[in-house]
């Protein structure tokens, strides 16, 4: 059924055209995601993870193939603010309070003040920033900034949340905590998630499926199912099946590195 599919990528290619040479960043990439699915993209540097995310988010147009999100083009979804993006750097507006940063996409979408503030407060609670509504971004730690960025990305209740190494710059303990927050947010909201990560452990902890990519040109090497029980917790890492999946994933990843 079409409306149960989140993203559908068919035979996607993406070529960056340069003055001297072209780079084929993606070739023959096909992937179908179900609504509410959590998919991680992992692979060596340059295998096209960010490029794939950017195509899904309509920041780049495919050179070939097709991409649909809930049966529509990424352009239509982006213009309707049905796609949320979070990058490694939170990129909050320093002159707006945390609340006003989170409410910004709704403001740009023309939502009335009362509604957008109510939504922003709800999200502040969801991401664990209660008490920081009036704070300035510079008063937040790195982890708190990422929480605010996630809340902002969720403010328009997107169909798809795209995360490009959102926790890459955080220390391990903060990263563990935010992983658990993300798992909970995913459970509560039912949003479909695509996460780019360099950590197989993070991918196994959070995902329903792990897409292992390989470079030159960027393509899908293998898709691993991750059937670990939900809800996930840090205790999930103590399961023998967790370690099995990490080992399996690492083996697949190493094959990709053979092409680097
Ligand atoms: N704007 C650009 N112009 C030309 N080539 C680019 C551009 N952006 C990325 N590339 C090239 O496309 C390929 C895929 O890059 P991409 O950033 O998608 O990989 P990645 O897997 O996300 O890498 P990383 O893990 O280092 O972030 C690489 O060879 C990269 O050099």
TrEMBL record:
<keyword id="KW-0547">Nucleotide-binding</keyword>
<dbReference type="GO" id="GO:0005524">
    <property type="term" value="F:ATP binding"/>
</dbReference>
<dbReference type="InterPro" id="IPR017871">
    <property type="entry name" value="ABC_transporter-like_CS"/>
</dbReference>
<dbReference type="InterPro" id="IPR027417">
    <property type="entry name" value="P-loop_NTPase"/>
</dbReference>
<feature type="domain" description="ABC transporter">
    <location>
        <begin position="9"/>
        <end position="240"/>
    </location>
</feature>
<dbReference type="GO" id="GO:0016887">
    <property type="term" value="F:ATP hydrolysis activity"/>
</dbReference>
<keyword id="KW-0067">ATP-binding</keyword>
<keyword id="KW-0813">Transport</keyword>
<dbReference type="InterPro" id="IPR003439">
    <property type="entry name" value="ABC_transporter-like_ATP-bd"/>
</dbReference>
<dbReference type="Pfam" id="PF00005">
    <property type="entry name" value="ABC_tran"/>
</dbReference>
<dbReference type="InterPro" id="IPR050166">
    <property type="entry name" value="ABC_transporter_ATP-bind"/>
</dbReference>
<comment type="similarity">
    <text>Belongs to the ABC transporter superfamily.</text>
</comment>
<dbReference type="InterPro" id="IPR003593">
    <property type="entry name" value="AAA+_ATPase"/>
</dbReference>
<protein>
    <submittedName>
        <fullName>Sulfonate ABC transporter ATP-binding protein</fullName>
    </submittedName>
</protein>
